[in-house]
Amino acid sequence: MTRLFYLLGFAVAGTLWGMPAGAQSLSSGDYEQCSVYSPDGEYVGLSTECLERNRARIRHYQDIGSGNPSYSARPAIPAGQRFRPIPPIQSCPLWANAGQGYPSTVSTGPHGQFFTYFGTFDSMVNGRRCKAEIHFTPRYN
Predict the structure, then answer these.
(1) Model confidence, pTM
(2) Which terminal residue of the chain has fewer beta carbons within 10 Å of its beta carbon, N or C?
C-alpha cells in the first residue's frame, strides 16, 4: 500500500513539475538594467520603455513554451505563395537515346569545374531534365 502511495505521489509531483510557470515577474537584474541615472550619477528612476520591452520578452517566451497554437514564430504565408511552382518537365526527344534520355549529364561551372548530375537528361553534356517516354515505331513490312 505504501508503494502505491509513493508511486501516486511521484506521479503528481512529476505532473506539477512539468507544468509551465505562471506569470513571471521581472527580476532585480531587469530593474537594474532599466535604471536611469542623471549625468552626475544620481538615481532618477526606471525607464518604462525598457520595462515594457522586458515584460514583452517574458510574454513572448511564455507563449513559445506553452505550445500556444495561436502563436507562430513565423509570419503566416498565404496559401498561394507557400511553394514556388515547379516548372513542367518536357518529354525526352527521340534523338536522346531513342526517347529514354541519358542517365546523367555533365555541366561546367564558372571556373571550369565539372559537375555531374544524375537523373534523366536530354544530352550527355549540359543536358536539361526530361522524362523518359516509350516511343513505339510502326513495323515496316
Answers:
(1) 0.35
(2) C
